[in-house]
Amino acid sequence: MHERVPYAERQERYLQAPFRWTPQQRLAVQGLASGETARTVAAEVGCSVRSLVLWQRHPEFADALRGALAEQQQAVGQWAVLVRSRRLECLAERHALLGQVIAERAAAYAGAAPGTGTGLMWPDARLVKVVEDETPPETTAEGEPVVKSARRYVTVQSWRVDVATLRELRDLERQAAVELGEWTEKHEHGLDAVELDTYIAHELARLAHPEKDRAAGAADRPA
Fold it and tell me: Given 3-state DSSP classes, what are the helix, strand and coil percentages for the chain, each rounded to the nearest 5?
């Protein structure tokens, strides 16, 4: 009569013996490495959860599982790098296109008004200005005065700083800094978004109207 071997001893012998791989066990490694639960993997490969836990305790199965997990993590990391690289390429492309718009606008409007050569000024909607008509009244052949309007309308051009484009450029640069992990440091030592918008608008307005800047400086000087 054979002596019954205790379960704990049988387990110990199993863990010390070479692992005999089956397609079922290799499928279990892939399922566990992909993040599935032990119950789900056991149902997929057709074994009990107890058997699956015992497999995981075997050194060879555990090594294979660690290797599969490392491959999964490497694949995920490579995919993340590719996605981030593509995002950076798209950001750089949009930034270059906005730079092209600014350059072409500078060439088209250079000299039209102060600051238009920077490409950062945008022609605003045309404004209608009412001007008194000082031309002498006309008369007919019989000496009758010709009734006409005493006012005439003159269309003038107005220019403004293209804050929307500047804001989009800043957002693209900030997003690129976030992707590269540089935004936190720059944010801690720099201006916040509202302060940066205010500063840019103020500086561009000052460059576009240098005469106002000089007048303000003269007013600040003591008499």
Answer: 65, 10, 25
